[in-house]
Amino acid sequence: GQQLNQSPQSMFIQEGEDVSMNCTSSSIFNTWLWYKQDPGEGPVLLIALYKAGELTSNGRLTAQFGITRKDSFLNISASIPSDVGIYFCAGLPTGTASKLTFGTGTRLQVTL
Amino acid sequence: ETGVTQSPTHLIKTRGQQVTLRCSSQSGHNTVSWYQQALGQGPQFIFQYYREEENGRGNFPPRFSGLQFPNYSSELNVNALELDDSALYLCASSLAPAPGVGETQYFGPGTRLLVL
Predict the structure, then answer these.
(1) What is the pLDDT of residue B85?
(2) Could you say which DSSP state residue B40 is in?
(3) How far is B24 from B68, CA to CA, in rounded Å?
(4) Across the interface, do B45 and A30 touch by the CB < 8 Å criterion?
(5) A45 touches chain B (CB under 8 A)
(6) Residues on chain B touching A3 (C-beta within 8 angstroms)
(7) Is A44 on the interface with B (CB under 8 A)?
(8) In 3-state terms, what secondary structure has residue A83?
């Protein structure tokens, strides 16, 4: 099935550093969502974006909905150990079925 | 806590068997979507139900079927299990003003299925 291109695939960073990851698609989406998934758990919604160009923050997390509606990025500032996990972007079209199309994931590991 | 629960948490089956996975949506949510997540991959859309009717399907064969009930619970049934069906199965609930209208989906913790 289709998956969005997400980069980087994985990253090691030091505690306190800022993190950036992005997601690109060949299709247009009307909503972009960012999820975090811990091992053995379901994805947990971090940020939802509903309009092209929108910039939204949730604590140390900031995400933007690209102007072309084909991309989005997520920034995490001042990373802490509990940021460890896999981050997924997901695009939501409007249509017959609002199926989420997920990215390939970015695995974040934080070193002390 | 998303308010979405799934059962069982883990399950082991053998090839050819049938399995039923269950999901309890957030109260009031009229839409449930099911996803399959293979190890190391992002979730893949299986199908969606809106007010107890199927509202779209991904690239999964007919042996994957589902039901949604008025009490916000739903089921995913898989017949004739294959080894490749081993995965984490996630349900997500949402409140949509109309079928197909974009909405935010909240995921349950998943059921991990192993097919031997």
Answers:
(1) 98
(2) T
(3) 10
(4) no
(5) yes
(6) 41-42, 44
(7) yes
(8) helix
The C-alpha atoms of residue B46 and residue A31 are separated, in whole angstroms, by 19
**The residue type at A15:** E
Place of tokens 């916000």: B72
Write down the pLDDT at residue B101.
65
Q: Are strands B111-115 and B10-13 parallel, antiparallel or unpaired?
A: parallel
The whole-chain average pLDDT of chain A stands at 90
Distance CA A49, CA A31 (A): 6
Q: Which residue of A has its CA nearest to B101?
A: A94
Please give the residue of chain B at the shortest CA–CA distance from A48.
B104
pLDDT digits (tens, 9 = 90+) for B28-87: 888 999 999 998 889 999 999 988 999 889 999 999 999 999 888 999 999 999 999 999
- B27: tokens are 């109260």
A52 touching B, CB under 8 A?
no
At CA A63, angle to CA A38 and CA A86, rounded to 5? 15
Q: Do A105 and B90 touch (CB under 8 A)?
A: no
Percent of chain A with pLDDT over 70: 94
